[in-house]
Amino acid sequence: MPTLTLHDQAVLTGTRYRLVDVGTLACNEQPDCIALGALFLGTAPRPGTTVRMSKTQLQAQLRQLGLPAAGRLAWAGADAVAITAKAQSVPAEQLASTASAALIQALGADGLEIMVTTPVAPLLAPDGVVSLRARPVLLAPRSAMKVDVDVFIDGRFYRAVAVPLAIALRRPVLVARHGLSAGAKLDCADFVAEERDIAKLATPAQVADCQRSMRLRHSMRQGEVLDLARLAPMPAVRQGDRVTVSVQQGGIVIETSAVALADGEIGKTIQIRPGQASAAIPARVIAAGKLTLMETP
Predict the structure, then answer these.
(1) pTM of the model as a whole
(2) Does 54 reside within a domain?
């Protein structure tokens, strides 16, 4: 019959504990000792804490596992065991370095400055081989960033640590040479390229690209940085444009000219005023400067 002499104290290494970690096994038959000794009973307590397990609690755990040898196990020694975990300290510098490397990978090293403004406390962790993995940085750059670092002990996840970092990210941006009105077409002559800290911008900057067919959604003051929130696509038709309007009647397509009374993207219906007419009628934008009326019966 196998016998377990329960210890009154057990100091664990690793993140889980087995029956042989809390007591000494003696068996007449070696296979019984091998089977019982390999049983994992639970997760080690957090470093700095103690968990007390009574003999009754351990017996209940063994019954749940259903191992035949557990039913023949005789008990001796203490009535309960105080379980603590051997601890180690994961340096704060190591956590910060892992978080910083993730930022560099996400944002690029060029023009990036990383500062630890809020010191991270060293992490008390169970004994074992430590590995750190930063979670991907998916947010746009901001002056204050947070990187989550997952801590693994012997390949098993232990916990995550949030590492706060401050950054500066200097990149070339477009700056308005003078005041610009809302609706103005994007023109390179209105901007100058400068290097600015884009982490301080409310929205991502439009980096040195003024060749796109866009217009300003909002007005800009001299010295302001062009960002994506200020840009809108150029409409296919602009208010006041003289446009070509077509209408199909049977197999005949008739074209005439009109004046657009509003901006319009392709597919949008806007009001137009044909020729010398005083009344406005709706037409759908089909291309730049071209609209069509609905077929009439």
Answers:
(1) 0.64
(2) yes
